[in-house]
Amino acid sequence: KAGVTQTPRYLIKTRGQQVTLSCSPISGHRSVSWYQQTPGQGLQFLFEYFSETQRNKGNFPGRFSGRQFSNSRSEMNVSTLELGDSALYLCASSLVHSSGRFQETQYFGPGTRLLVL
Amino acid sequence: AQKITQTQPGMFVQEKEAVTLDCTYDTSDPSYGLFWYKQPSSGEMIFLIYQGSYDQQNATEGRYSLNFQKARKSANLVISASQLGDSAMYFCAMRALMDTGRRALTFGSGTRLQVQP
Q1: Do residue B103 and residue A56 have CB atoms under 8 angstroms apart?
Q2: CA distance A84 to B22
């Protein structure tokens, strides 16, 4: 079974631009979460999507947004990029059982490295 | 609020020896999950092991075991018979209730493990 895939793997943008990152979860996984990893702040939770709805959100400004499609693929968008948005953005997926119970373990993709100049 | 603490920024171990990576946590959520992930220089987060807060026995996965001491709020990772390929960053993480009323992963700052031949 293929793992979580993320595109693009590397991205260079300039301040003020916007960017869209894509994530395809493991087949059958319907919950997708996004994380930001920086040397200064470490790994931080951005948001979680399930059934095309944002289920949970971390403490990030409104410039960070996301969405999920009916096939469970997810995108996240960062508008008006700042230098501090340079980071590794990781996507993770997890299984949701037919009972509605969310499996605890999340499986991560390889990440998208974003550099803002 | 939940918190994960990893007090060892870096560790060295000789090949074939065992090593323990420390992790302590704090949460008011009675139903939480504890995880260890490995992050090689490529950036992908690799799931290693999971321990539920109600699990009576310590989790084991091959050469990895989690030393879960609930009363002391610690969840140390033990790697037996270290291999050169174990050199990587290791993150302890906890899935517990946020202020949003939903659960999300909180990560520690990580421990960089270097296995020496």
Answers
A1: yes
A2: 30
